[in-house]
Design goal:
This protein has helices at 11-25, 32-40, 45-68. It is globular and about 40 Å long. The protein is built from 3 helices and no strands. It is mainly alpha-helical.
Length: 74
């Protein structure tokens, strides 16, 4: 799946991926409405924290790899 907007996902997963996209691409634009959207589809505080942590970790790891010029193996 390359596009979570058109993939056959439930509302909960789609909301999570929208949140992760926004946090990755425009972190300064995050607002309470973004976490409220997750709560509206059933995510609790601990789950939201986990989404933020995993999203942040992958952003960090990718920047470290890119910053060091690491090339992927085939």
């Amino acid at each position: 799946m390359q596009d979570h907007e058109t993939a056959p996902l439930d509302d909960r997963r789609r909301a999570m991926l929208r949140f992760a996209d926004k946090l990755t691409l425009t972190p300064a634009a995050m607002t309470r409405a973004d976490t409220d959207a997750l709560r509206a589809v059933g995510f609790g505080d601990a789950e939201i924290l986990a989404i933020v942590e995993v999203t942040g970790y992958y952003a960090y790891a990718n920047r470290v790899v890119d910053g060091l010029g690491v090339e992927l193996e085939e």
